[in-house]
Design a protein that fits this description.
This protein is of the alpha+beta class and 159 residues long. It is built from five helices and six strands; from the N terminus they run H-H-E-E-H-E-E-E-E-H-H.
Amino acid sequence: MPQPSTPADVVRAVAAGVDRLVSGNLTEQQKQAQLDHLAGLYAEQTDVRHPFAPLGDTPLNSRAQLRSHFAEGPARTTGVERFEPVGQVHETADPEVVVYEFSYVGSADGRSFSIPCIFVVRVRDGLIVESRDYSDHVGFARAFGRLDNLTTALAADSS
């Protein structure tokens, strides 16, 4: 896959890569290649945060951490019939920074969903060096039948 170059192209490539992990029905070899591609969109040292994460924000500061993040989340999703990012990228006065306002729309286990997201991303030399990913984590749990898991984790976290 060619490396995207503009900040808008890079942020779209991340969302499209997650789409392929979630809905691509990939072989193990294809999945590993997709994880490598996604991680390769980030600088070796980066700062990715999820401020709305229900169990707290754990910064991701390296490609290796991001690869693990993608492998532990999107790559393990099952029952998905459709999953795609729909939205638009807004450019800012800072040429390195874009805001991607979108929703992951699709269906899983026969239920439709639309999960709103906003990514505020800094891209330097074609790689993400900083990102703040604001996603509806409860919406993800609901869409993929994981509300019980989230509730259990929240209860354990509060004790």
